[in-house]
Amino acid sequence: MADEPLHYGEDYHFIPATSAASGLGVSVRPDLYCHTIQIVNICLVGRPGDGAFVLIDAGMPGSADDIISAVEDRFGSGSRPQAIILTHGHFDHVGALIELVREWNVPVYAHKDELPYLTGKARYPEPDASVEGGLLAKISPFFPNEPIQLGSRVQPLPEDGTVPHLPEFRWLHTPGHTPGHISLFRPRDAALIAGDAFVTVRQDSLYKVLTQQTEITGPPRYYTIDWTAARESVRKLAALFPSVAVTGHGAPVAGDELRDGLTKLACDFDRIAVPDYGKYVH
Length: 282
Ligand SMILES: [Zn+2]
Ligand SMILES: [Zn+2]
What we know:
- 24% of the residues lie in helices and 17% in strands.
- By secondary structure, the chain is α/β, with parallel strands linked by helices.
- The protein has one domain (24-273): Metallo-beta-lactamase, Chain A (4-Layer Sandwich), CATH 3.60.15.
- One zinc ion (ZN) is lined by residues 40, 90, 92-93, 196, 220, 248-249.
- This is MBL fold metallo-hydrolase.
């Protein structure tokens, strides 16, 4: 297993995209930390000082050193997570995964329906440059799309909804953006890690990505392949009435801003989130 070849897709490369939040981190709870890598967020779950924590998602291509620094700044030098849990397998969520797995030698978990895209067996449909939206949608075909090969280093999440090493959390299947997309929810304080099921900055607009202008909106347009499932997933998350949400892109949102924005998105999903045209819109 140790010498199993791990590799990124052949089109993996550094993406020179950034945002006003890049390199910054925010503690939304004492044990819930969101850190921005260029345009995407990673999340560290665990209380500094306790020694045990889990990393959610693995950033952009070439960002392993930044992620290790963020981890060591928070948990101490030489610290490593107990596991890495993936909300889904898009390049901007697995970008540094292989370097991190080699550095830390920790297990990786994802939904079983996402495993084909993490083990080189299936590739995501091409991003849709024709979708209604801004400049980043137009250049999305230049984003890496070939599947990463993690072999037996990635394992399916337990079927019963429990999350390895995070006993207070449950994973929820929130497909639509990808087939095996998940979100993580903690009932005790209604904390939500949403992945890209919904995001707080529109990802097709270069200006909004750069400035990180907050608005609760649907999953990134050029990548979302099943808008019916995406709508159901947003409704499922809105029904939980989360008190705080860390999303894959954009700043964490809490309180009334989250409740009102998510309720509005769930009620008016087709108008707010679904593009007017695009090859995955029917
Ligand atoms: Zn995504
Ligand atoms: Zn994303």
